[in-house]
Structure formats: structure tokens, C-alpha cells
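call fold(seq) -> C-alpha cells
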Amino acid sequence: MFNPNNLVLHPSHAVSGWLWLPHLAALGLLWSCSAPLWLKGLASLGILAAGVYTDLLHARLKLPYSPHSLWIDARKPGICQLRLRNQQVLETRILGNSIITARFVVLRVRPVGARRSRVILVCCWNSDPDAFRRLRVILRFQPRSADKALAPE
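ret:
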């Protein structure tokens, strides 16, 4: 059954490529500097590990705590349900420092009762384009009072 407020995320090779660009740029800068070879190798392993983790979490969606879907009710601004790959459902608040552009949305959410926030990357490549447009409209036109109330402390 199709629910217009439900946004399902799909694995995407395009998102994977865009997420690897900063990691590869960092490797290029690292190897152009004058540091000992052992230090460059160690730092390269750290950068590659961060790239693999980011790719698995946000692009390929393979980790158990990768986001699977988002359910947003337009009548409750600033509140959404996040469903993870391991079937866990988290009630979350949308924070005010989320980034909403025409091409992508970097959604910062904080699960109720948690201290740390999560980042969810949504774009037209890893979701249904119509659902992505609805998400952007809901987030852009939510009441400003809710946006200020949900700003990070």
C-alpha cells in the first residue's frame, strides 16, 4: 500500500560516488604532503575506513542501523519516525540545522531520549523523486516556531 508520507531509501551508486569524493581528495592531499611514509600509510587506512563506513551507512545501506524509511506527518512539524534496516522504529525530532536544497536533504534528527543526533542523507537518487519533493516541501514550509523549538541545544 502506498503511503504519501512514507519515504523509502534505496541503495545508490551515485550517492556512493559523491560520498567517496571527499575521501579521495583527502588521500590526495595527504600523499602530497611531506610526512613520514608510515604516518601517511596509517592516516590513509583511517581515511579509507571512514570512507567504507560512510558508504555502507549512507549509500549502500548495508549496516543494521542504516535508515530504511522515514515517515513524516505534515500535521506534526518537527516530528518523524525513522525505521532502520534492523526493523527498529525510532521516534525522532527534526533539528533546526538540517540542510534542505534542490538536489539533496541532509536531515539531522535526534531520537527521543537520546543525547546524540543522527544524519540522514536523502536525494532523488536514493528515494522516489515524488516522495523527495514532498519531503522538501514539508521541511521548507514547516512553521518557524517549530523550527526554532527544535534547534540543537
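The chain has four helices and seven strands.
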